[in-house]
Amino acid sequence: MDFDDLVKAVAPPPNRVGKSEGPHEHHLYEGAVMVAYAMHLLRAEDVDDVRIHPDGEHGKQFDFAAWLQRRGFEKVSNHGSTSYGGCYRSAAGQTITVNPKSGLGDVVAQAGDRVISAECKGGIINTRHPGQVSRLYRGLCETVGLRSALRSCRHRDRASGQSSRSARRNVPSVFGTTAT
Length: 180
Known about the structure:
Helices cover 36% and strands 21% of the residues. The protein is of the alpha+beta class.
């Protein structure tokens, strides 16, 4: 399956000219990362249904409906008030549900008795501009830190009997903020 259309070539703004490999910046938007990971789960894991939870900005940057339809996923139902929200089904019966609601994890799937939940990050993937590289690194660190904090909360929940919400308020992440 071809994934080349996930990356968008964009002319850089004047302050970033010459800071990317080649004449264009290659933007891999967060929505593109979400569908790529969803497709990976459908192929590589024992998964028949994947849920994607984009926020409004993701829908402005990436055309979920068109991309899924080009991959043989037909929209079978609507979900929410956006044009792209809904359930998409392949000829093989696999489904990707696009539910534009934040706070649920960017990509979520049930694989047997375990839940796979991923936070996705996008960015300019061919840049040497310090600010953009820093943004990619910070996004990765925030995701890893949040995952670590949430794991710690779950462990603390079992050990102390605290609710997940109150435990998360009390666990500082590696970056000095509180995961809520």
